[in-house]
Amino acid sequence: MPGLWELRIGNEIRYTDATGTYLLEGELIDLKAKRNLTEERVTQLNRVDFAALPFKDALVWKNGNGKRRIAVFADPNCGYCKRLEKDLVNVKDVTIYTFVIPILGADSAVKARDIWCAKDNGKVWRTWMTAGTVPPKSMDAKCDTSALDRNLAMSRKYKVNGTPALVFENGTRVPGAIGGDQIEKQLASGQKS
Question: Does the pLDDT value for residue 1 go beyond 90?
Fold first, then answer.
């Protein structure tokens, strides 16, 4: 819109005039086209290069042929993450890459280590998140947990401030737990572009 300047504050958008005298908070909507321009811009700014994600630092599991892919940032003690994991079980033909980020306290860090160091860490993650089976205590003092530190750094880079956060192959990021039907809709509409 002529005369309106965009200001980015973290993941939020504000608007000002050319002189910086006025500040406008709210959404800019194109009434004729029926488009929320602010929402579209925030989505664009939060886009993640899916192919550049460090998949070696993720817990991985597959349902069906695994041809569709989703990345999830999750904390082992996050209730919404547990609900999301239960919904993901019903999503067909998908590979899930979970970047564990223990952000909800000391117990999250302990559980993250125990899960990461487990022999079949993907299975241990899923049974903890979906059935409440407590992860076995890690006794491996040599287990390299630096991936968890890298995941935390990556979450800060992408400004992931809460869990869960989903990233689809087309780069779209969705904060919060969404249902399986919404995941399917996003997967169908958001094929890699």
Answer: no
Q: How far apart are CA 18 and CA 22, in angstroms?
A: 9
The H or E element that residue 85 is part of is helix 79-88
Angle at alpha carbon of residue 146, lines to 104 and 128, rounded to 5°: 45
Q: Provide Rg for the chain, Cα atoms.
A: 19
Q: Per-residue pLDDT for 126 more than 50? A: yes
pLDDT tens sequence across 5-53: 988 887 788 999 989 899 989 888 989 999 988 888 877 777 888 999 9
pTM equals 0.80
Task: Collapse the DSSP code of 167 into the 3-class scheme (helix H, G, I; strand E, B; otherwise coil) and give the result.
Answer: strand
Rounded-to-integer distance, Cα 62 and Cα 91, Å: 10
Q: What is residue 117's three-state secondary structure?
A: coil
Residue 166 phi, psi dihedral angles, 5° rounding: -105, 145
Task: Give the list of residues 6+ apart from residue 26 with CB closer than 8 angstroms, or none.
Answer: 38
- Residue in this structure with the two tokens 């401030």, named with its chain if needed: 161
Banded model confidence at residue 134, pLDDT cuts 50, 70, 90 = very high
Cα Dmax for the chain? 63
92: which 2 tokens?
Answer: 């067909």
Q: Are 153 and 177 in contact (CB under 8 A)?
A: no
Q: Kindly state the tokens that stand for 14.
A: 């504000």
* pLDDT score of 190: 64
Number of residues that make up the chain: 193
